[in-house]
Amino acid sequence: MANSIQCSFARYEKKYLITPAQQAVILREALRRMKEDVYGRYTICNIYYDTENWSLIRTSLDKPVYKEKLRLRSYGTPGPKDRVFVEIKKKVSGVVYKRRTVMAPGDAVRYLSGDMTVSPGGQIGREIDWFQGFYQTRPRVFIAYDRSALAGIEIPDLRITFDTNLRWRDTNLDLRAGDWGSPLLAPDQILMEIKIPGAAPLWLSRVLSRAGVFPASFSKYGVCYRDFLSDHSEREVRYGA
């Protein structure tokens, strides 16, 4: 999967919390103009990096015009010879910008811990170097989920993804430690995302209306922090970790 994924792009992303019944309505209509992703169903694993006082996610939850985050991502549990992505994700006035570089798992961990001998270099590497030099982040939480996706036939850049079994942990913060964790959402909740460079086509708007779904302000890391980690982080800030 690493060879076919873009390392830099900008797009709009809309999120929806839906039920299995709503998903069935959307799939029945969408599959007339879209096709299943070539990878089928797969697992995405992330480790989110943040500052000592969780300043990145705290700022993000305030819904500023500009916000950014740093994460380490893999598709499934990586082995020593697999590749992972070091990603900076920014959102400016509703547009999502992603910049990422591909590294071996061990090198990525060393790099984000401050070992510049394994820096990926290049423009994206320099952006990550600056980010880490400024924020000095460290691993804070692991979040994984199982994804299925649709891609547009006439509009290839249109994607609809469905994430289920969202799970998290704040121990063993290494992608190589497996994709286990505690539930982040109720079993009957599905996170759907629509990703597109511009405006959504009219037929899709009609499908969403027919299914009775509406955009939701939802961040996996934000919900995890708000619902499970904020009390602990307050104690860290107040009394020290």
Q: Keywords for this structure?
A:
eight-stranded antiparallel β-barrel; 241 residues; 29% helix; mRNA Triphosphatase Cet1, Chain A; 36% strand; alpha+beta; 10 strands
Rg over alpha carbons:
18 Å
> Which consecutive residue ranges, at least 5 long each, have pLDDT under 50?
237-241
Helix content class: 25-40%
Calculate the terminal CA-CA distance, rounded to whole Å: 38 Å
The largest sheet, given as strand count, sense and whether it forms a barrel, is: 8 strands, antiparallel, barrel
CATH class: Alpha Beta
What is the number of helical segments per DSSP (H or I, 4+ residues)? Answer: 6
Strand order of the largest sheet: 1-6-5-4-3-7-8-10
Oligomeric state of this protein: single chain
Arithmetic mean pLDDT: 92
Give me the strand/helix succession: EHEEHEEEHHEEEEHH
Beta strand %: 35-45%
CATH topology: mRNA Triphosphatase Cet1, Chain A
Identify the CATH architecture. Answer: Alpha-Beta Barrel
Strand pairing plus helix content: what structural class? Answer: alpha+beta
- CATH homology-level superfamily: VTC, catalytic tunnel domain
The number of distinct structural domains comes to: 1
Q: How many E strands?
A: 10
Globally, the shape reads: globular
Task: Give an overview of the whole structure.
By secondary structure, the chain is an alpha+beta fold. It has a single domain (2-234), classed as VTC, catalytic tunnel domain (mRNA Triphosphatase Cet1, Chain A, Alpha-Beta Barrel), CATH 3.20.100. The protein has helices spanning 20-30, 55-61, 105-112, 122-135, 202-211, 220-239; strands at 8-18, 34-36, 42-50, 66-75, 84-92, 95-103, 138-152, 159-169, 182-183, 190-196. It has an eight-stranded antiparallel β-barrel with strand order 1-6-5-4-3-7-8-10, surrounded by five helices. The longest helix has 20 residues, at 220-239.
